[in-house]
Amino acid sequence: MNAVDSAKQLLLQTGASWILWLLAGLSAASLLLAVERWLFLRARDADLEAFARALAEPLSARDWPAAIAKLEALPATATAIAASGLKLADLGPAAVDKAMQSAVAIERRKLERGLAFLGTLGNNAPFIGLFGTVVGVIHAFEELGHAAPTHGAGAAGQVASQAVMASIAEALVATAVGLLVALPAVAAYNYFQRRVNGILAGSEALSNLVLAYLSAEPARPEVPRAV
Q: pLDDT value at position 113?
């Protein structure tokens, strides 16, 4: 038996049912991941306008510890980035900017964790279903080949025809399931990418506000003029 026959026999013995179970497992994993990412991103988002108003007083007074305390009170991405920069406020705006850039990279990894799985599943689930389709078609042709000598021989031909149709139906089911798994994964991936970009854009706005206060010259007390 050559390699082609060995591969054919292996595919015929295993069938396409295990591919359907694999797709079902991947679909369940993507659903759980989507729920976890939605809850996480929801917790890491913040009302930036309210925080900007709350930070106006300590930043105007250049009271960095008070501003850091307000930022750390909320576990959001924007506040974590701004707080990491303010901790280096004594080193100047350039050091604060570098610290914030480093914090953005760290926060981005947290926000995008697991999204590669959704993107990969969305791109490859149709191919997994297509593999099941190929297995089903191979099985159908095998049944058709066995039925050829007895074609039109009454009950035997009818049974063989039913087996061929069942194999083709199994092949089409694998394709449909692959698409059903891929479409929600792609939609979730695109949605979460937009959420991540929105959160990071808000973080950049809050960071620029902090840098604006740091770059401003401190107010000097007025010296009374000599009469």
A: 93
Torsion of CA 33, 39, 45, 46, to 10 degrees: 180
Report pLDDT for 60. 86
Cβ atoms 54, 70 nearer than 8 A: yes
Write the CA distances from 156 to 138, 139, 166, integer angstroms. Answer: 21, 18, 15
Q: Categorize the per-residue pLDDT at 175 as very low, low, confident or very high, splitting at 50, 70 and 90.
A: confident
Copy the structure tokens of residue 116: 């590669």
Contact 75, 44 (CB under 8 A): yes
Q: Which amino acid is at 90?
A: D
**Residue 71: closest CA among 59, 80, 58:** 80
Place of tokens 């280096």: 88
Q: Is the pTM of this model over 0.85?
A: no
The answer to whether the CB of 54 falls within 8 A of the CB of 79 is: no
Taking the alpha carbons of 155, 159, 162, 168 in that order, is the dihedral positive or negative?
negative
